[in-house]
Amino acid sequence: MNLSLIDILLAHSGLTLLGAFHPDPADGVPGFDLGQRGEATLILAGNAGPAMWQFFSAQRRSEDEPDPLDRWSSRTLTKIASELSVNSGHSVTALFPFEGPPYLPFQKWARRSGDVHSSPFGPMVHRRYGLWHAYRGALLIRSALDIPPATATPSACDGCAEKPCMSACPVAAFSTTGYDVPACVGHLDSGRGEDCFRLGCLARAACPVGSDYAYGEDHARFHLDKFLAAHRP
Length: 233
Hints:
The protein is an alpha+beta fold and 233 residues long. Helix content is 35%, strand content 16%. The chain is built from eight helices and eight strands. It has a four-stranded antiparallel beta sheet with strand order 1-2-6-3, with helices on both faces. The longest helix has 21 residues, at 68-88. The chain is globular, with a radius of gyration of 18 Å. It starts with a helix and ends with a helix.
């Protein structure tokens, strides 16, 4: 078993290998203690760009299934973990960011890869995919696979003088003091936020990094619909 094989298996389900590292006890990986340093590999899996949406749209069980993307992610990665366990002889477990509380520290794990940094308006920006990626789960492999050493890459935001993400929101919901959720929700709920729905947040769409991986309209609208339903008063 190696990263190339795992990358292929993920790609066959529209997912992307977004990082890998050998966890330490301080990383908060379930089932680890001080005596298990370097004895496992954690593979971060998620979507980057629109590829996952095609698989999810074809495989979701119904239009009214609760939390359909989380459930699809659980089915897909659990199946991949099972296949890897059977074929490799190593224990492989699927872990997910949406199971909790307590919730697993996926953002901390993402930073361990060295490929992501916090953006000025909050979400993590990937050096290749920009803001058009998300972590759908992780594969915990009870074996230390050969992986490239994590190297700290500079944030793409450091060299971005204009920072268009901070000025693109029509209701100025993003500022150096934080995210004004009520302003965002009010705009989306007002009927004036069609461009936000179509592009998946104008602040996100304004970032020049990873623009080739921008979500399609159905994908973008799905996430904003979920966001609005969760935050509507």
